Amino acid sequence: MKLGKLRLEGFESHSPSLGSQVDRLSTPVLLVDGIGAMRHANWAGTEALRSAQYLMLRNGFVRPRSLKLKRPFANMLAALLPDDSTGTTSLPSATLSLFDVEGNEALLVAQSLRGMAKPGGIPREDAVLFLINPAEKAQFDKSRFDAVRLQIAFGFTSAETRLARYLMCGMNLAQIGEQLHLSRETLKTQLRALFHKTGTNRQSELIVLLLSSTSAPITCP
Known about the structure:
By secondary structure, this protein is α+β, with helices and mostly antiparallel strands. It is 42% helix and 17% strand. It contains 10 helices and 7 strands.
């Protein structure tokens, strides 16, 4: 597989929201299946694989540069997927430290898409990989990062993500409208979009799903 053609044929047309969210991020982002097979990469992700400083692409599979991390990487992906035969519960996200030949440490964050509403036909076993380089790692903004992951996982717009985060902080529509200076009708329209994109029907069901999709409590505005 050539690095210039990492995207699967027809992938973007099937998932325009997810693809556009991934492609406009400056952080290297990769979409893989449960065993690391490459499905999509943004420009930064393509360059990260090309340089092979922390990750590489081999026979269509994403792998750590260091062979010592091959097993931990596979275990991390496996942890994102429940074992249907044993009933093991999956983790919403996991992290792994990666090292280059000079010992510089980067952080690989994996976000599970399993159990969420299928965005544009993406298989449930897919995961999103974010490569946080050493410079970014020192200024890692957990709250902002979880917001980005909500957008990618569910295909939310920026406005929908903002509403989702307020709901996750326990605020009702009246409080949110006052805080954001938005009408109740505008917020109800955004809320209906959240229901549609997550496959939920009630606000309580929506909030439970959103909270389960992040690795730590959202920092409230």
